[in-house]
Structure formats: C-alpha cells, structure tokens
Write a structure and sequence with these properties.
single chain; 13 helices; 52% helix; three-stranded mixed β-sheet; seven-stranded mixed β-sheet; alpha/beta
Amino acid sequence: MPRFSVIVPVYNRIDEVADLMESLSRQTYTDFEAIIVEDGSSEPCKDVVESYKGKIDAHYHYKPNEGRSIARNYGMERSKGDFLIFFDSDCVIPPDYFKTLSEELDKCPLDCFGGPDAAHDSFSSTQKAINYSMTSFLTTGGIRGGKIQLEKFTPRTFNMGFSRKVYSKVGGFREMFSEDIDMSTRIRQAGFNIGLIRPAFVYHKRRVDFRKFLRQVYVFGMSRITLKLLYPDSLKAVHLMPAAFVAGLVAMAILGIAVSPWFLLPVGIYFLAIFVCALFATRSAVIAAKAVPASFIQLAGYGCGFIQAFFTKIVLRRGRDIDQEVAMRKGK
C-alpha cells in the first residue's frame, strides 16, 4: 500500500492537469498514488492522466458533476494510502515535496497538516501579483501559511493532508464553499492535532485574471458567514478586516469629496506600502504595480461578500442555505 494517496478533483482543466501530472512524475519520493476524479467535465483529461501511468501510479475516474467536495470524497473511497493528500488542479508540485513531507512527518507526526503556496517563475505577472496579495501580511494577516499568523493555521485543499484514521472518524468533505476550513475545524474538534509543514509548499496558479479573482474572493467573503453559522466561535477579528476596509474606504471617499481630499491620504499610504513591500519581495516593478489592484480586489471583494452575506443570512435570516447550515451545526 502507498504511504500517500493524492486526490485531485477536476472540472474542465486539461492543461492544468497536464502540468500537475508532469510535476508528480518528477517527484524524488515515489511512494504515492495519484487519483484524478473528473467531476462531469465536458473536456475530459483521461488521455492526459493515462499517459503518465508508466511513470507514476495514476488512477483516473469519471463521475457526473456534483461538486468538488463530492469528487474528493469519491476519490477517498477509492484510495489506499495511509495519508490522504489534496491538491487543486491548478497546482504544480516541487520535485522534493513528498520527500520533504515524509521526512517531516517522521520527525513530527501529525494527524492533519498543510503547507503554504508560492508562485512559480513561469507564472504570469498577474498570477504572481495575485499570489502576493493572497499571502502578504498586509492583506491576509498571514492566515494562509505565512510566517506570521493572526489565527490558528487552517490547512486548505490546495495543499492539505490527513491520516486515514482522521478520515475514518471525521468522514468526508461537505459540499459547501470553504469546505476545507469546515473540514479542518471538524478535525480539530475531533481532538486531532493539526500543523503547518512550511517546507512542503506547492506552486499555485490561482486565478489568471482579476475578474475571476474578484469572483473567487467575493465567494470567500460570503462563505465566512456560512462558517460563522456552523461554528459560532470561528469568526475572528482578522476576518472582519476586509469589511472594515470597505466601510472605511466608503467613509473616506465621502469625506474626501465632501470635506477635504486629505481624508484619502491613508488609502494612498496603505497602497503605497503594498507597492513597496511587493517590490521588495518580488524584485519586479510590474508585479508590484499589479499587486496594488490585486490587493484592492481581494479586500474589497471579500469585504463586500462578507457584508452581503452578513445582512442576508444573519440580519435578515434569508438565503437558501440558512436552515441547512443551522441543521449541520446541530449534527442533523
């Protein structure tokens, strides 16, 4: 039996799967199987996956479209490894990833774990700017596996794993937004230990343009309220920051127009700080310049999604998921 089972849900991502499979074929540690679950794609990646069967232990499964969580559960049911590892289809895995992961788990056993993500040199400047905005302390508070964190580390399914013992007790993923945060919370509540394995990072392509990125972070903001309904104590101060950013931006814009342009100065200073820090971190003026709108989109998009969901689901108690969320919290 392999030590690791890699499970990846896929929906119309042939090119991404090709890059992912190529990176898996270059691993220096090979005691793993790769399970690709095609979730009802109209452009199947079967030929891509099967072309690597002579290089790695690859398994392809096609199923009707039901969502990424159901696809992951489908893959787990067919896995054989001692540990279940989850990547997104838009990830590229460094050659020593599994070697590093195996060594780290031998030194410090963990029930559930995750690692950070990074931008590969081949990624576009927009992808690198988005990656910076998603990992910078100035925008996320370091909650995605950075060096400084404002809340407990929570593994995300772009780079996450847990033992078969965890799976046997906690079960699979729920079909919902932020399903990985929900899973990590359930694992922690079940008494298992969770840790960050910082050297086990992946290259994460993320969204390739700002429009798609806006939609993604807007959904992230909405899902934070879903998590609040499921786990009342899960909402932390760091999660309120994007909403506070939106409210402050609106207030300063009104004051800047009605009273004095000087009220807009804090906004300018903040985005200048993002540019300077991004320039220092990436050594690229182009990426640093794009990091400014990427950071604005991230904060404003998340904040608007959070505010809308807060008023819809908590204040007005409306929304098709409200009863389901409360039922899930009660274990029904």
